[in-house]
Design a protein that fits this description.
Keywords: Acyltransferase, Transferase. It comes from Streptomyces andamanensis. It is built from 10 helices and 19 strands. By secondary structure, it is of the alpha+beta class. It folds into 3 domains: 109 residues, Aminopeptidase (3-Layer(aba) Sandwich); 162 residues, Aminopeptidase (3-Layer(aba) Sandwich); 91 residues, Nonspecific Lipid-transfer Protein, Chain A (2-Layer Sandwich), CATH 3.30.1050. The strands form 3 sheets. It has a 7-stranded mixed beta sheet with strand order 1-2-3-4-5-14-6. Strands 8-9-10-11-12-7-13 form a 7-stranded mixed beta sheet, with helices on both faces. Strands 17-16-15-18-19 form a 5-stranded mixed beta sheet. The protein is globular, with a radius of gyration of 23 Å.
Length: 409
């Protein structure tokens, strides 16, 4: 089997193979783009071929930035389009491609790789761990009233925002530059958020509001008229579905939520991609009106250089831990002394006894602060070697804001 980077000449073979792996047929190109794979770059795509030249497997990456705790953006590779033809599964094709791909990521000098897992059982063995979660919130329209904030009532017309801001309705096709700018400001402050390169917006690749699917967009502007949030939505069969809500702070999110919850002639409002622990349910006058469903993992993280990864993120508590990290897929085993002082970390090799022993995939799960190390200790994934080690790890890895990722790739 031969694994090599695609060229422009064999890109069509790549697209055909990944579709065949999932039993789909490529969509017919339309004017103005909008195909999900149109943002792929040939030089970041891998094609696996048999000895006689037949394509049987694919894997690719997108160049993104991932925002780490402490509002620190770093370059990452976003793994996508991973597939093996049904006729060649369980023959080592996938493992060979994933190993080849990780070697390429390291060769580019990157220390993190991320993906969205089509199946949860596949990617742990390659060192990826689920690092962010998301859910949907469904609110019946007749129970959608927001509670009055303590010390005052919710005021203002449906188009009014907090502190005199405003909400206006635009069509997605007419405000792409605005959406791009607002999203970019948001993702730079949200741990776990990925960048959306201009290439995505220009080619309309991905899911709404990036794709050409028709959407209305509620745009929030501050008192100076500067856009600082939006909610992309559609209405079908009486259900208003919000694809994503982007807000630079909670007050803007509340203004956008109040706007869509007040929409006439709908029976329910569905918010997709609500972050864990979001206060919106508590803002409903009827606490039971918000039904949470579809709670699932979203962004999976894979560390390729533990010291670089741990020193790249921000920290809010001082302390030190010895981490014994196994990486079975790459055949690596290292012990690291993590020392945090004044929000910065130092990570060096050590032969001291470990505080925690863990797999590289579990380190990926706790890395952004969305999963407490003690949870994985209780689950039997991480081994704590002394009393208090898990509690200290919880305090160290905890982020000021829960990590959340909205971007689909």
């Amino acid at each position: 089997m031969d694994i090599r980077t695609t060229t422009d000449e064999d890109f069509d073979a790549f697209v055909g193979t990944v579709h065949a792996a999932f039993g789909h047929f490529p969509e017919t190109p339309v004017e103005g783009g909008g195909l999900w794979w149109s943002a792929l770059e040939a030089e970041r795509c891998l094609l696996a071929r048999t000895a006689d030249g037949r394509p049987v497997g694919t894997a690719a990456t997108y160049p993104f930035e991932l925002t780490l705790p402490g509002e620190r953006p770093v370059p990452v590779s976003g793994v996508t389009a991973v597939g093996v033809l049904p006729s060649h599964r369980r023959q080592g094709v996938l493992s060979s491609m994933m190993r080849h791909q990780l070697e390429e990521v390291r060769a580019r000098g990157e220390f993190l790789s991320v993906l969205l897992a089509s199946e949860a059982l596949i990617y742990r063995r390659f060192g990826y761990g689920p690092a962010t979660h998301t859910s949907r919130l469904t609110v019946p329209r007749h129970r959608a009233a927001l509670d009055a904030p303590r010390g005052g009532a919710v005021t203002g017309a449906p188009g009014a925002g907090p502190d005199g801001g405003s909400v206006e309705i635009l069509r997605g096709a007419e405000c792409r530059e605005l959406l791009e700018e607002v999203y970019d400001r948001y993702r730079r402050t949200q741990p776990g958020a990925l960048s959306r390169p201009h290439r995505w917006w220009a080619l309309r690749a991905g899911q709404p509001p990036v794709s050409p699917a028709p959407r209305y967009v509620a745009v929030h502007r501050d008192t100076d008229g500067v856009p600082d949030g939006y909610a992309s939505y559609s209405i079908e069969s009486g259900t208003l579905t919000v694809d994503e809500t982007i807000a630079t702070d909670d007050a803007v999110f509340t203004a956008l939520a109040r706007f869509v919850l007040g929409h006439d002639l709908v029976s329910q409002v569905v918010f997709k991609h609500v972050p864990p622990g979001h206060p919106l349910r508590w803002q409903l006058a009827d606490l039971r009106a918000g039904e949470v469903s579809g709670d699932t993992d979203w962004l999976w993280v894979r560390l390729l250089d533990v010291p670089r990864a741990l020193t790249a993120r921000g920290w809010s508590l001082d302390g030190e831990l010895v981490l014994d990290v196994q990486d079975p897929f790459l055949g690596e085993h290292d012990r690291h002394l993590l020392t945090v002082r004044d929000g910065k970390a130092d990570c060096v090799p050590t032969d001291r006894d470990p505080d925690l022993s863990l797999d590289i995939s579990d380190l990926g799960s706790v890395y952004l602060g969305g999963t407490a190390p003690s949870t994985l200790v209780r689950a039997g994934h991480i081994r704590a070697h002394r009393p208090g080690a898990a509690a200290l790890a919880d305090a160290l890895f905890r982020a000021e804001r829960a990590p959340h990722c909205l971007h689909w790739f």
